[in-house]
Amino acid sequence: MVGLLSDKSQNTTQQNPSQHVHVAWPHEYVSVTTDDQSTSVDQADLYHGDVLKAGPNEGAKERMVFRPQVTVNVFGNNGPNTGTTGAEGSKQESAEPASEKLAKETNDKIADLTAKLEALSQKVDELSALASARGPRVECGLWNTGEVRSWKYPSNETRGRINFSKDFKSIPKVTTGISSADVDKKANFRISVYPTEIDKKGFKVNVDGWADTVIYTCGVSWVAIGE
Description:
The protein is α+β, with helices and mostly antiparallel strands. The protein folds into two domains: 4-88, no CATH class; 137-226, Sandwich (Immunoglobulin-like), CATH 2.60.40.2080. It is built from two helices and twelve strands, in the order E-H-E-E-E-E-E-H-E-E-E-E-E-E. The protein has helices spanning 7-12, 86-134, and strands at residues 4-5, 22-24, 31-33, 47-52, 61-66, 71-72, 137-144, 157-163, 173-183, 192-196, 202-208, 215-226. The strands form five sheets. A three-stranded antiparallel beta sheet has the order 7-12-9, with no helix packed on it. Strands 8-11-10 form a three-stranded antiparallel beta sheet, with no helix packed on it. A two-stranded antiparallel ribbon has the order 1-6. The relative contact order is 0.12. Mean pLDDT is 74; it is low at 1-15, 17-32, 34-41, 45-53 and 77-83. InterPro entries: H-type_lectin_dom_sf, H-type_lectin_domain. Residues 1-24, 73-95 are annotated as: Disordered.
């Protein structure tokens, strides 16, 4: 609300200085700003008028100059006694919703991340349980050349087939090693054991010797790892 009061009005009404603004009318209009708490009129804007003189020269006109006193009151949206202008009130009103909006967006993001983390944790638990349930399958055993020939007939090349107790879902990894050996003491100890023709059902075990080595018997340990 903007009001214009005369000098007489100002003497009878006390206005809050914080509600006064600068007033100027350099041409034919009035401008109001809030950067000042006083009323000002430029010298060029002084009012000039004629008044009738009293006394001996009664009825004669005399030129006089006076400065009008103007007060402008600007009240904010919250009423004249709050000391808050309309711009400040609007700023506060717009700031509060913006803060609430930011808080809501932050809470929504936290809730979304929490839900994703819970879903990821649940997926990891499911995969862990599945891996534990399936796990790697391990099968091992022992084999001896005596299963395919007698020690009385030594040989440096002996082959045998080992079948798994249960078929693997895919071809497993197989390792072999010497568990026992009976060779001629007149020659060096030269024996090599290794698997070949590995499939889901089993593999072929090989026992080889070379040079003058004589193998009477040889025991082989083996391990198969797969699904």
